[in-house]
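Readers of this paper often ask what the protein records in our data store actually look like. Below, we set out a record of this kind in full and without editing:
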Amino acid sequence: MPIRRLPETLANRIAAGEVVERPASVVKELVENALDAGARRIEIVLSRGGRELIRVTDDGHGMGPEDLPLAVERHATSKLPSDDLLDIRFLGFRGEALPSIASVSRLTLTSRRARDDLASALTVENGRAGEVRPVPHPKGTRVEAELLFAQLPARLKFLKSERAENEAVAEIVRRIASARPDVDFTLVLDGRSVRYAAQNMDSAGLRARLSDVLGRDFGPNAIEIAAEREGFRLTGFAGVPTYNRATASHQLFLVNSRPVKDRLLLGALRAAYSDFVPRDRHPVVALFVEADPQDVDVNVHPAKAEVRFRDAALVRALIVSALRNALGGTAGPRIATTGADFAAQAFRAPSHAARPHYPVRGSLALQPGFAEEQAAFDIAPSADTRADAEEAAEPAGLPLGAAKAQLHDTYILAQNDDGLVLVDMHAAHERLVFERLKKERGRAASQVLLVPEVVDLAPDEASRILAAAPELAEYGLGVEPFGDGTVLVRETPSALGDFDIKGLVLDVADALAEWGAALPVAERLDRLASTFACHHSIRAGRRLKPEEMNALLRQIEAEPAAAQCNHGRPTYVTLSRTDLEKLFQRR
């Protein structure tokens, strides 16, 4: 078959296939154009999920009548002052958005500059442009795309339901709005309006905008991030580990104000939170990477959804270190404010539950079963009721307060200035041991056993243990071969004291089998430390003395990462006086 030039309309439709995948793609391109034009107010209107109408109106610089025909031509752009494709300082730059959209819809472009008396309008219907005509319109630009894919039924049938398309558009707008708190965004989906009011371009304004985008609970549960390394700057907010979600949909990454979904950034985020969040949960973050345009290639994806960094390892290291420093900062442990809401909800009796009526004969009678339930509720004597206890510790100024009781030999009940604290003593101590082991890695003190421990294993288990011997030695566990399927333990970590050596070795063998050799060495070491910590931490069912409980509370306060255990679960919850008053309907 001979080579031939494709008709312009067909070439535009092929380009549209790369740029215009669905209504959300149209909205993304048009909103980015509005931001590039200096808009401070942007309104996005959709009808029938974008099939019938997509309209984006802004108050930007606008265009003159001579610009409109060029704006709908392929590869015509005002955003590349030079021919250097690595010097890109605008969101849009390829010059394909408007002609691509016009090739698959009826596009009407209306725009006016501040110096013009009248606006100019141009209509392009399925790739065929009409004449420029004068019309009344305020300063700025309005782009209307009607009957999207109406002439392409094969493309139209691949669109999802109107609700799904609306949700995709809302997600695009949320991501773009997170980068520009100074811009007022209004989104109207089939008559329902959502507004992101303009904020100041400072930390408080960004936090307020992100709370609008990610949910009102994000603001009080987020830690500010600010770090810089060799020309790359990282800012934004990261949710505390106990504030997490079931999916990764609440993670925002922006590179030079451009929303992206990048594997490198996602991998760095997972590595940073690996010690803090359960594997089936996802942190909530909004991270902004800023760099010289020469160090970032944004032209690697037709829809500009991915980027490539000149030094990917540097960016990953910057993100991991900045997040870990923030999560393990000096402000002390933090739990999500929603934890108190969850705890309060758990304490509340169901409002719909019928209140049983028990007749009282003579003196006041207890409800049936009450005495039995009270006896089953095992509360150890508190610090200030034990006969042999010293004067009770006062909670003044202590975040976790003073221990008052031990419940079911598992939880510590403490009182602080603002309410009460319930601590899972095993989970909290496990985290403390884990952090201590990590800090001592490579120089951990070990104790030589007078009688070495012989541990019998399956041949494959023994092989894995011996292969990991250098890593185990990092924490003071010395192992060596002792015949087929047997290892000899000569040294144990001093930090662990007395523990079940054989049980630890068996657990390590199981863990190594689960991880395989795919994990990086640093991550393998951290997981080994977590396994070690499980064997030394205070077990549920152990009765603690008042001074032991208070000592544990003070250690938790001193360790910033102690708000969650090694598996990402909360180690304590708090109920303020306000929460307590709400529980008893005092307010």
